[in-house]
Amino acid sequence: MNLSIVIPVYNEEESLPHLHAALCTALAALPHAWEVIYVNDGSRDRSMQVLERLALEDPQHVCVVEFRRNFGQTTAIAAGIDHAQGEVIVFLDADLQNDPADIPMLLEKLQEGYDVVSGWRKSREDNALTRNLPSHIANWLISNVTGVHLHDYGCTLKAYRREVITGFRLYGEMHRFIPVYASAVGAKIYEMPVRHHARKFGKSKYGLERTIKVVLDLIAVQFLTRYAAKPIYLFGGGGFLMGILGALGMVFLLARKLLFEIDILTSPIFTLSVLLTLLGFQTILLGLIAELLVRTYHESQQKPTYTVRKVIRAGQEEKSAQAPLL
Known about the structure:
45% helix, Spore Coat Polysaccharide Biosynthesis Protein SpsA, Chain A, 9 helices, alpha/beta, seven-stranded mixed sheet
């Protein structure tokens, strides 16, 4: 299998027949084998019955994974990755707002040597206030915090080489951060405009409450991508900073005592300095404990701490698909 399309499904019974027909039309001319993995994320309508019918009508291309309950889009995508057999994995929403006809365009870009091709809904057909504005803010925040600059992290339509997305697990709302994880293992990323259509059936499952989840997940992603291998850099740096501030406070109090004979113990700066010094010491110790946990994690499971794009030996080139668990 060369290509796997992963589609999370939640209450999209009306869209699914049109979506599958559009997929078959878009992928029919491809020179390689393909499959579509529909992950039914606890739908409460007739989505599962529609998917079962599609699986009977097109058993060569359709795989259906049904959850016992609703687990969320990120978990559905993770399940799709686990069941995908393709060397290239494409994510797509089931609501027909992304156009399946854009998939060959993404695949062509992958052939140029990129590992990730990310869709950009440049002309987005959504509510400007409740959907577009929060999305622009989130994209700006994620790009500047992570250093992986994309215009549209929220666009599900993305194409990946399997080796850059199978070395980590997804939780929460972290499916939008997959390009950040891929970048952390050295993936070459390209972003290109894709078509976006207004929703024809059903209603949106997204709300403003997801913004808070995205911010919290962003903090977790930053820690996992920058400090997962060396947590002492984060904890130790914070500990040293607090210790230095505490020491400077004590020096200030001592100088004030010698010059102006002002009592040290009655000043709130004394309490703050002692607290900072103790917290700094404890934070450094916490960093050392985290270092032991990281080493135990990598060594006990024989997880690699590096990734290899290719190896050239005696005129032969070998590609590696091994990626570390972040």
